[in-house]
Design brief:
Length: about 200
């Protein structure tokens, strides 16, 4: 797998959102959901309407079964993880639902060609093309949205141990490297409780 970068600049994130908003609410939702939860693209693409909608309202959490590679005994395990849906995600979901008629078994990121989800390659094209149009330098791919989530969570004061757990990493050094944060790099951490 080729190394990709997180999007560290908030202005660049907002540019991508504007580009995707003009393009498609589905594509905007893919980006916003990814950067606000850190869910793997393969898991995002397998989501169905019932994973985010309970029939009356948008759910508070998405539950995803993730394959954990090599637990302490060296065995692969399946673990269900909960991902919080914040107001940014809920806002985009509401817009998306208002524009389409879905059934609860439809894929959330349904292809325009059939009843299947968009492919990983299509997700890559969506993210990569929007980033290029926004003038973002560096390597951008589907993993960029997951890394962007972690980078900004870390910058806002989320404990590295929590981010490590989300990524299934074995050490904080591995997580910091993954996020593109150099060892010993000093940066201001935003601890915003926003009471």
């Amino acid at each position: 797998m080729e190394y990709v970068d997180p999007i560290k600049d908030i202005k660049s994130i907002n540019k991508i959102k504007e580009i995707l908003k003009r393009q498609s609410q589905r594509d905007l939702l893919l980006f916003v959901l990814g950067i606000n939860t850190g869910i793997r693209v393969s898991d995002l693409l397998s989501l169905r309407i019932s994973d985010v909608w309970d029939g009356k309202e948008i759910k508070e959490f998405i539950y995803v079964n993730e394959l954990n590679y090599q637990n302490d005994e060296g065995k692969n395990t399946n673990e269900q993880k909960a991902y919080f849906l914040n107001n940014s995600v809920k806002k985009e979901l509401k817009k998306y639902f208002s524009q389409h008629d879905f059934t609860e078994c439809d894929f959330l990121f349904k292809s325009k060609k059939n009843n299947q989800p968009i492919t990983r390659q299509q997700a890559y094209r969506i993210i990569n093309n929007a980033a290029k149009e926004a003038g973002i330098q560096g390597k951008i791919g589907t993993h960029t949205i997951r890394k962007t989530f972690g980078y900004h969570a870390y910058r806002k004061g989320i404990a590295i141990s929590i981010i490590m757990s989300i990524y299934n990493h074995h050490s904080s050094a591995e997580t910091l490297r993954y996020l593109g944060i150099e060892k010993g790099q000093k940066q201001l951490i935003k601890v915003d409780v926003n009471l």
